[in-house]
């Protein structure tokens, strides 16, 4: 029991420990923190990393620092040339073994097969003999020495170059196994450039013993990482990203689309990397923010890197937290409500008889069948229901106007053709407002709102909806309300996921900022739209009340 509690406690403290380790490894190194983070993550996930960049920008310096992350570990580095031999990388042949036993056995102490962290500079200059053996080491983490195959303790392979492998050079298989690819540039910020010039160099990082990773810990973590969950929702986002990268490759004309080809093997290794990131961030499953790490896994060249960065930025803005889905859902609700309003307007709007329209000798409107209402001592009023949401039909009354009361005799007398100003009451207010009514081109009765937009009107007692119509519209508005509630749920879940995922130990700060800012924008849009749409939904849902003769017979 106490052992389980200790394990839980260690897991809870692991993110803080890894964060402290990153800080220690990054101390005294300027504008290289992301590179160090990616190197450490590659080591923790048991993957390899390729650093692309010009000479003299501390690529080997970074790799050397990573050895300090591990307790009792060995470091091996080598600068490849066209003339490099396997003996210089994997160890010289044992003359004694050859003489005594007639066997080719290498003396591997101090060479790559016995190293925990390996740095190979100018990797693509190596010859086939080295690269073929290296491919086996990377694939299987084993090294064949004579008749025996030995496990290789290598936790991290860092390769570097200022160029990419030549096409058709036979190096694609090895390059494909460099899961993480990081572009390392010269120092850009002025203050950092000055510090680099003036501050004493720190050849090695100072890492406290309590932060260093032991062999037992490392091996234990490697057994846990594959067991972490990749939720279906995260897989769907990952698959969307895959499709976007592939589509971007087919849409680009300036370079070969194959530069954005990502093998199935790389995707599988990338998922393990995501699980490692989740584990060291203190989670039991991959979360949305972990997907941002794929930016450093999907490019092959500087040109394709630019495309991947663009795709990732759009992905962070639109997909990572379902932003696009939420906005599309709101658009669907808006369209649905507009269609319901259009249906109600077509079904209920008071219209002139086409045969008598425009004839001034007869009343343009017949209110004889409409019930009468009394408002503020004014009697013989008829009520018109407004069939579309509006900001108000009177400057004196702010807010959505749902119905108006007009004098029956006045409207029959004055409402002939063209635009007519009448006085009436709006909603439940008991003071007179000047209102503008007219017949539109389709002979429908409309009232102008304060933005001078026509709002169709229905005459209570004449254009009342049937029960089947009300039931149908209510079903549609209920569905629209459910969609709004789902949009609210998605945005609350996204905010919860973002908060739970921060701080993230490995993700690029720029992408985190893009994702966070996008979510804030969508949250604001959702709040604004939902406030408007909920009013519209409620308006349509209460349509039967607006036509009820008892709802406001007197005030």
Automatic annotation (TrEMBL):
Taxonomic superkingdom: Bacteria
InterPro entries for this protein: AAA+_ATPase, ClpA/B, MoxR, P-loop_NTPase, RavA-like_AAA_lid, RavA_ATPases, RavA_LARA_dom
Domain AAA+ ATPase: 45-189
Coiled-coil regions listed in the entry: none
Pfam family membership, one: bpMoxR
Cited CDD domains: AAA
Gene3D superfamilies with a match to the protein in the record: P-loop containing nucleotide triphosphate hydrolases (3.40.50.300)
Name under which the protein is recorded: AAA family ATPase
């Amino acid at each position: 029991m106490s052992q389980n509690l200790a394990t839980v406690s260690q897991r809870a403290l692991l993110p803080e420990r890894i964060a402290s380790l990153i800080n220690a490894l990054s101390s005294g190194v300027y504008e290289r923190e992301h590179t160090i983070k990616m190197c450490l993550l590659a080591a923790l996930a048991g993957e390899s990393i390729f650093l692309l960049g010009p000479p003299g920008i501390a690529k080997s310096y970074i790799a050397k620092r990573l050895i300090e992350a591990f307790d009792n570990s060995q470091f091996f580095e080598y600068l490849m040339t066209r003339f490099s031999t396997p003996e210089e990388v994997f160890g010289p042949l044992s003359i004694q073994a050859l003489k005594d036993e007639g066997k080719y056995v290498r003396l591997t102490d101090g060479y790559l097969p016995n190293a925990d962290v390996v740095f190979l500079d100018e990797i693509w200059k190596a010859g086939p003999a080295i690269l073929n053996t290296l491919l086996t080491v990377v694939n299987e983490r084993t090294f064949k020495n004579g008749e025996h195959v030995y496990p290789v303790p290598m936790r991290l392979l860092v390769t570097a170059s200022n160029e990419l492998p030549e096409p058709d050079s036979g190096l694609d298989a090895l390059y494909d196994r460099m899961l993480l690819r990081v572009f390392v540039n010269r120092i850009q910020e002025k203050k950092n450039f000055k510090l680099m010039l003036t501050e004493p160099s720190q050849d090695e990082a100072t890492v406290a013993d309590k932060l260093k990773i032991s062999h037992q810990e490392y091996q234990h973590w490697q057994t846990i990482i594959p067991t972490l969950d990749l939720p279906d929702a995260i897989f769907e986002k990952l698959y969307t990203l895959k499709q976007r990268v592939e589509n971007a490759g087919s849409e680009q004309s300036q370079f070969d689309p194959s530069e954005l080809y990502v093998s199935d093997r790389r995707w599988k290794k990338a998922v393990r990397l995501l699980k490692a990131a989740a584990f060291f961030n203190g989670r039991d499953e991959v979360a949305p923010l972990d997907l941002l790490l794929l930016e450093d896994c999907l490019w092959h060249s500087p040109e394709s890197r630019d495309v991947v960065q663009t795709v990732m930025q759009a992905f962070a803005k639109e997909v990572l937290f379902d932003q696009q889905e939420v906005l599309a859902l709101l658009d669907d609700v808006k369209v649905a409500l507009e269609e319901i309003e259009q249906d109600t307007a077509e079904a209920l709007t008071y219209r002139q008889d086409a045969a008598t329209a425009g004839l001034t000798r007869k009343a343009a409107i017949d209110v004889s069948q409409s019930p009468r209402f009394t408002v503020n001592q004014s009697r013989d009023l008829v009520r018109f229901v407004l069939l579309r949401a509006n900001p108000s039909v009177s400057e004196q009354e702010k807010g959505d106007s749902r119905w108006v009361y007009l004098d029956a005799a006045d409207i029959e007398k004055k409402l002939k053709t063209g635009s007519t100003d009448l006085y009436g009451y709006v909603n439940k207010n008991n003071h007179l407002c000047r209102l503008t009514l007219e017949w539109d081109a389709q002979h429908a009765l409309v009232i102008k709102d304060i933005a001078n937009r026509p709002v169709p009107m229905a005459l209570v007692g004449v254009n009342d909806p049937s029960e089947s119509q009300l039931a149908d519209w209510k079903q549609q508005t209920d569905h629209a309300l459910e969609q709004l509630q789902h949009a609210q749920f998605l945005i609350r879940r996204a905010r919860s996921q973002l908060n739970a995922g921060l701080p993230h130990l490995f993700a690029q700060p720029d992408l985190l900022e893009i994702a966070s800012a996008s979510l804030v924008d969508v949250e604001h849009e959702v709040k604004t739209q939902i406030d408007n749409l909920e009013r519209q939904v409620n308006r349509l849902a209460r349509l039967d009340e607006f036509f009820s003769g008892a709802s406001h017979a007197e005030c």
